[in-house]
Fold:
Amino acid sequence: MKKERILIIEDEEDILEVLRYNLEREGFKVLAARDGLEGLRLARSKVPDLILLDLMLPGLDGLDLCRKLKEDPVTRSIRIIMSTAKAETSDQILGLGLGADDYVPKPFSTKALIARVRAVLRRGPLKEEADRRRIVRNDLVIDLSRHEVTIAGKPVPFTATELRLLHFLASHPGRVFRRSELVSRIISENAVVIERNIDVHVRSIRKKIGKLRDLLETVRGVGYRFKE
Ligand code: CA
Structure:
């Protein structure tokens, strides 16, 4: 069975080590970050099953980090348990409003925390298929299930390859992809895509999305990205 991966984002070394030790002993694979930016980087690159998120962190605080994770389609589905020693419940309410799954006040018992971790993981990943397949950005709606792109509610005819290309880029806003990566990611059964054709598809997509064309950025010497 695949080990479930937990990312601990915690700047207090002793808490981090106690959590790491106990979670590993319970059979989890543990990743650790000691500040918010490192935590965000690990969350984006490793996409763990669950994040134990301390709220008071150097670099980027827990609430901002949570907000960023929930905005990014890649990390949106990661389960989050927040914790803080702060007495106010306003952070708790805000955190849960931002999409955290649970909240554990500090100090906590390791045993109780692990029980919470198991309970949240039992809910399964937050991957709402429909949600991932439909991307909304300004007036632009990209819907893979319906095989449809609309701008301000009006359908715009897209080829299958253009739709997959735009959807893929829009699912990873702010990330640059090389043409070769795009070719391997958007390959479909009935369309052969070669690298230099990516430029042709992008040109065609820009033409179709008109005034929203700036969303699709060229990164000179690298490839393309969807605006963050
Ligand atoms: Ca802290």
In short: The chain has two domains: 5-125, 128-226. The first helix runs from residue 13 to 25.
